[in-house]
Design goal:
alpha+beta, OB fold (Dihydrolipoamide Acetyltransferase, E2P), about 200 residues, rod-shaped, 5-stranded mixed beta barrel
């Protein structure tokens, strides 16, 4: 048989083994055999003549990277590639647990509040009488400054300063907190006075 034909068969075998390696995990055995077949193809072609050897060397150096790149690009769409690779989430919210706490933050978008601490860029804000951890969009915010919630990203409230004033929100028990005489004694956290002082 003509050495050039053997050289072509060895090159085809090398390319097939490269593709096969991506679909059948062999621990590198198929890769080694593919490299040996590619080198053998070039050696056999040089045995046929220097001109055939150079042609086969050029063809091999062009075809091997093209076939390998195509196989790698196609591999994630194969059944084994889909089993091994993790699908990237389409939305950053998909990686978060579906908790009531996170779902409760989404309705805050667009609401006004007040910075409770200095925000460089993170800190605490008060929105509707509740304190939340938040971050700014990069600018510092002073305590007491009005803020607006612009986004909730990966369980984090994003705020920006605003000139609008938030509505006054008084907690339901604020009147009782202002007037300790209107509260029952149990609510004041005092211990009983049944035992005499010693």
């Amino acid at each position: 048989m003509d050495p050039l034909l053997w050289s072509i068969f060895l090159l085809i075998a090398a390319l097939a083994l490269i593709v096969f390696e991506l679909f059948v995990p062999s621990g590198g055995v198929l890769s080694f055999l593919a490299a040996a077949a590619a080198v053998g193809s070039i050696v056999v072609a040089f045995a046929a003549g220097p001109r055939q050897g150079m042609v086969m060397l050029v063809v091999t150096t062009v075809l091997v990277p093209v076939v390998l790149g195509s196989a790698i690009r196609w591999w994630p769409h194969t059944p084994i590639g889909q089993l091994i690779l993790i699908h990237r989430p389409e939305n950053p919210d998909d990686v978060l647990p579906d908790t009531d706490e996170y779902r409760g933050l989404k309705p805050l978008i667009g609401k006004l509040g007040t910075a409770k601490t200095k925000m460089l860029p993170s800190g605490s804000v008060t929105i509707d009488g509740k304190t939340h951890d938040a971050v700014t969009e990069g600018m510092p915010i002073e305590p007491g400054q009005s803020i607006r919630v612009v986004d909730v990203r990966t369980n984090r409230i994003v705020v920006r300063p605003t000139s609008e004033q938030p509505p006054e929100v008084r907690p339901a028990n604020s009147l009782a907190a202002d007037d300790p005489l209107s509260q029952p004694i149990d609510a004041l956290g005092l211990e009983g006075l049944d035992e005499p002082l010693t």
